């Protein structure tokens, strides 16, 4: 089987590569990548790598930019002829859903929750230089822009996309809680859990936890003698 791994991001990406390696080395499928290819990438995971330019405005399905990406994806499909597509984010999943090919949606972000978190963190961020009056003006303008774009466009648009995709395609999530919520809200049983397994690079700086044994206070210490 020939599997096209599609992403709006680029390589290297350990999550995508680990998924592809499982399919290629353990099962023997051919794996291909299409996305924002990094020039410095020297990995040997994929048999072929196709560069796809994803402008930010395409993520909002602005027609001109969406068609620009769609033409590139069409070329990748024509050349790679995949049997199935593994879409690693909501943008590539929404895009590939327009081609009539079988695909799997990797919803590891749990997008409806993730995008709201991005919105909240953007409004709680503080500019270290906003003591200057002009910086305060720019800060307020930036907050207003985030509010307009994320709340009224992105949250509604991407949440609807997630609902459409989960309802129509097999979906991968990383936790049982996310799987349960998506199955119930989208009335589907095709939501599957594949836990994240971090790389050594991602956890190498973690230190061993320090366990402290707390001894209870004596009755005498709690009730000191009078006098």
| Approximate strand percentage | 5-15%
Our Rg estimate from Cα atoms comes to: 24 Å
Main sheet overview: 7 strands, parallel
Give the neighbour order of strands across the main sheet: 3-2-1-4-5-6-7
Which geometry do the CA atoms define? globular
Do you know the CATH architecture of the domain at 1-106? Answer: 3-Layer(aba) Sandwich
CATH class of the domain at 1-106: Alpha Beta
CATH topology of the domain at 1-106: Rossmann fold
Q: What is the mean predicted local confidence, pLDDT?
A: 83
Distance between the termini: 86 Å
| Alpha plus pi helix count | 8
Q: What is the element string, with H for helices and E for strands? A: EHEEHEHEHHEHEHH
Protein architecture, described:
The structure is a single chain. The chain has 227 residues and is an alpha/beta fold. The chain has a domain at 1-106: Rossmann fold (3-Layer(aba) Sandwich), CATH 3.40.50. Helices cover 48% and strands 13% of the residues. A seven-stranded parallel sheet has the order 3-2-1-4-5-6-7, sandwiched between helices. Helix 6 links the parallel strand 6 and strand 7 (191-193). It is globular, with a radius of gyration of 24 Å. It starts with a strand and ends in a 5-residue tail after the last helix. Residues 125-130 have low confidence and may be disordered.
């Amino acid at each position: 089987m020939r599997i096209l791994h599609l992403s709006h991001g680029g390589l290297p990406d350990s999550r995508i590569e680990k998924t592809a390696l499982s399919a290629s080395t353990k099962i023997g499928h051919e794996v291909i990548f299409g996305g924002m290819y990094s020039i410095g990438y020297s990995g040997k995971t994929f048999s072929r790598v196709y560069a796809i330019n994803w402008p930010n405005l395409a993520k909002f399905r602005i027609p001109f930019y969406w068609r620009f990406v769609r033409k590139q994806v069409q070329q990748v499909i024509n050349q790679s002829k995949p049997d199935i597509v593994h879409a690693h984010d909501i943008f590539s999943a929404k895009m590939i859903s327009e081609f009539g090919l079988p695909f799997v949606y990797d919803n590891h972000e749990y997008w409806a929750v993730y995008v709201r978190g991005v919105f909240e963190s953007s409004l709680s961020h503080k500019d270290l230089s906003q003591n200057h009056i002009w910086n305060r003006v720019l800060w307020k303008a930036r907050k207003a822009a985030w509010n307009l774009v994320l709340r009224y466009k992105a949250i509604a648009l991407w949440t609807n996309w997630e609902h459409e995709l989960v309802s129509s395609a097999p979906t991968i999530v990383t936790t049982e809680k996310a799987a349960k919520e998506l199955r119930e809200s989208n009335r589907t049983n095709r939501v599957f859990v594949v836990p994240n397994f971090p790389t050594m690079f991602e956890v190498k700086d973690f230190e061993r936890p320090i366990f402290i044994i707390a001894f209870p206070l004596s009755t005498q210490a709690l009730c000191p003698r009078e006098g």
